[in-house]
C-alpha cells in the first residue's frame, strides 16, 4: 500500500552540512517518501563562535541550505535555530564565563528575532550539557536555558531541548523550569528521546522520538503530541553514527502497509502534533500529491 497522498512524512530533527551530503541527502529523503524536514542549525565551521556575527553567519547558512533543498528537491523545510548550548562550555575558557553567557543570550535573542520574522519555526537546540561540568559553568548553562525559554515565550514558538535522556523526574524538572519562564510545557520539545516515558509522567513536555524501529513500534500506540526524528548529522567522517535521513519515511511506509488504522496513527507525528505544538498544519507538497 503506498502512502496516502495527503499524508505528510516529516523528520522532526535533522542536521545537514553544505559541505556534506546536503541537498543530495534531502533528495534521498524525498525518494523514500519524505515530504518535510525540520532542519536544525549547527556549527558549520568547526570553530567555536566568539561573536554574534558568527552566529548570524551560522543561521544564514541554515536558511540558505533550506532554500536550496526546497528549490532542488521540492522537500519543504522549516528551520530551527539557536546557539548550541555546549558552545558556552567551549567558549568560556576562551572569553570567560560571563562573556560566553552574554554571547549565548545575544544569539538566543537573534534566533528569537528570526522566528518572529518567519525564517525559523522554533528555538533549538537549547539545553544543558549532557556531561558533568564545573559548578560555575553549570549555573551559566542553566541561566542560558532560562533565557532560551523566555525568548521562546516572547516569540510564541517551541523550544527544542538537547539534554540527556529523561526519566519522569527529568521531565518534571524541565517542566518546572519552563513554568518559571512562563513557557507552556506543551511548547517544550525534548529531542532525541530514546525511552518511552508514559504521557502522564512527562509533565506536559513533548517528546521527539529517535526513529529506531522498536521504539517507533512502541510509541505508535501513544497519545500525541509526539514527533519522530533521526538527528541525522550529515558527517561523512562518521557514517552510521546516526540514523540515515531516509529512516522516517521508511518507517512510515512499513507502518502504512499494516492498514488504514496504522496510517491513522501516523497522523499524530506528521500532522496533529505539528498543529498542537507549532500551530502549523503541514500540507503535502504538490510534487508528491500527484
Ligand atoms: Zn540535533
Describe this structure as you would to a colleague.
- With 290 residues, this protein is α/β, with parallel strands linked by helices.
- The chain has a single domain, classed as TIM Barrel.
- Helices cover 47% and strands 14% of the residues.
- It is built from ten helices and eight strands.
- Strands 1-2-3-4-5-6-7-8 form an eight-stranded parallel beta sheet.
- Helix 2 runs parallel beside helix 4, helix 3 packs antiparallel against helix 4 and helix 3 crosses helix 5.
- The protein is globular and about 55 Å long.
- The model has no long low-confidence stretch (mean pLDDT 95).
- The chain binds zinc ion.
- Zinc ion binds next to loops.
Task: Give short descriptive properties of this protein.
single chain, 290 residues, alpha/beta, TIM Barrel, eight-stranded parallel β-sheet, binds zinc ion
Layout: helices, strands, pairs:
Blueprint: E1 10-14, H1 23-31, E2 36-40, H2 52-73, E3 76-81, H3 85-95, H4 97-116, E4 122-127, H5 135-155, E5 159-162, H6 168-180, E6 188-193, E7 206-210, H7 213-219, E8 227-229, H8 247-256, H9 260-278, H10 286-289
Parallel strand pairs: 1-2, 2-3, 3-4, 4-5, 5-6, 6-7, 7-8
This protein binds zinc ion.
The site of zinc ion has 5 residues, from loops.
